[in-house]
Design goal:
The protein contains seven helices and twelve strands. The chain has 224 residues and is an alpha/beta fold. Strands 3, 7, 8, 9, 10, 11 and 12 form a seven-stranded mixed beta sheet that branches. A five-stranded antiparallel beta sheet has the order 2-1-4-5-6, with helices on one face. Helix 3 packs across helix 4. The radius of gyration is 17 Å and the shape is globular.
Length: 224
């Protein structure tokens, strides 16, 4: 079980009265092996929450734990740095190393040839192993970033708007790929998006953030 209790003061376009500070408050459990979707407009706190789980932001208060391991606890001043958290993160722009091939990007995370090839086959990028990011389509870059995020065998996979830059046809295709890979690996995954269609078609559970607050929790039906 991933337990998330997260509080942080923020500023953004969704704050009342033209951008005054507001508080991001999320207190939810996430079942192991499930796919959670977080909806919300820009400035609602989605990405801050995701990066806080990865350890890139420090909450002001709360507790974040996965199973028996606590990553953050404000009361006991525990803060586990990003490199020590078993987390894979896929950014909106994919953040691939431009001077490395597809193989090199994934091998950087795995440190192992066999594991690298296993992941490239999983995301169907083994035929492009020697290509550089500049030679790839948007969908191929997304799949490469996903393979790299899975390289350290994370217990938690975080996806920050991974489909937003893609055209509709490719978006539909990769939506199914994401779901397939999440099911095959069994990794607990969290997707943040402003797209209701993406979230409700991909995810098992859905919450909606508005100005830092959970406003409309809901449940999505199974896909496929």
């Amino acid at each position: 079980m991933l337990s998330i209790s997260f509080g942080k003061e923020l500023k953004g376009g969704c704050a009342p009265e033209g951008g005054r500070s507001f508080r991001l408050e999320v207190d939810i459990p996430v079942q192991e092996g499930s796919f959670l979707g977080i909806l919300g407009p820009s400035g609602s706190g989605k990405t801050t929450l995701l990066r806080g789980l990865a350890g890139l932001y420090r909450p002001d208060s709360g507790c974040i734990s996965l199973g028996d391991h606590t990553w953050y606890d404000s009361s006991s001043r525990v803060f586990v740095p990003p490199r020590l958290r078993p987390v894979g993160l896929v950014f909106q722009d994919y953040a691939l190393f431009p001077n490395m091939t597809v193989y090199g990007n994934v091998q950087y995370a795995t440190g192992d040839h066999a594991r690298t090839m296993e992941l490239l086959e999983l995301v169907r990028m083994d035929a492009q192993a020697r290509h550089f990011p500049r030679e790839l389509s948007g969908g191929q870059r997304q799949r490469t970033a996903l393979a790299r995020a899975l390289g350290r065998k994370p217990l938690l996979l975080l996806l920050d708007e991974p489909l937003s830059a893609l055209d509709e046809e490719l978006r539909l295709s990769l939506r199914e790929e994401l779901r397939r890979i999440q099911r095959e690996t069994g990794v607990t995954a969290i997707l943040v998006s402003h797209s209701r269609d993406d979230v409700f078609r991909l995810c098992d559970e859905v919450i909606e953030l508005e100005a830092g607050q959970v406003r409309k929790p809901g449940r999505a039906g199974p896909v496929g």
